[in-house]
Each structure stands twice: as C-alpha cells, then as structure tokens.
Amino acid sequence: MQSCINRENLPNKLCAVEGLDFLECVNRRKQYALNYKIQQELHKNSILILPTYDVENDKFISKYQNVTEVFQKAH
Fold first, then answer.
1. 21, 23, 18: which is closest to 5 by C-alpha?
2. Are 63 and 54 in contact (CB under 8 A)?
C-alpha cells in the first residue's frame, strides 16, 4: 500500500483497492463474519466433528476411523 501511495499522483482514488485490503487485514471483519456463519451452520445442523486438513498430503483426514467412536464420546 505504501508503494502505491508513493507511486501515484492521486493516491486517494488510485490506491483505494489497496486501502480496502489493508483495512480488511487490520479489522478482519470478513474473517469474523465467516467464522460466525460457520459456527452457526455447525450448530444448526448439529455437526459434531469436521475433518482436519493435512497440508502435506493435500487432503482431509478424519480423527476417527468409524462413526461409533464419535457417538461414544460425550460432546
């Protein structure tokens, strides 16, 4: 963002996108809204467990091998 402001003659108009990106990075409003919506959907659908993402193998992995393990635990 700083390089855009230094580079442009009218930084208020030409660097608006970079400014909005900076504000989103600082405030994280979209991230909070997304997290709230995900928690709301999980609660609404009574989803107990989501798989975790394995970055090295590029796939989702379940913590449990079968469904009975999930329902035996107290949630």
1. 18
2. no
Q: Token pair of 17, please?
A: 């996108």
pTM over 0.70: no
Residue 52 near residue 60, CB atoms below 8 Å: yes
Interval 13-51: pLDDT, tens: 677 788 888 888 888 888 899 999 988 888 887 777 778
Beta bridge partners of 52: 61
- Residue 8: which residues within 8 A CB-CB, separation 6 or more? 14, 15
Domain boundaries, the chain: 2-72
Q: How does DSSP assign 4-73, residue by residue?
A: HHHH-SSHHHHTHHHHHHHHHHHH-HHHHHHHHHHHHHHHHHT----PEEETTTTEEE-S-SSHHHHHHS
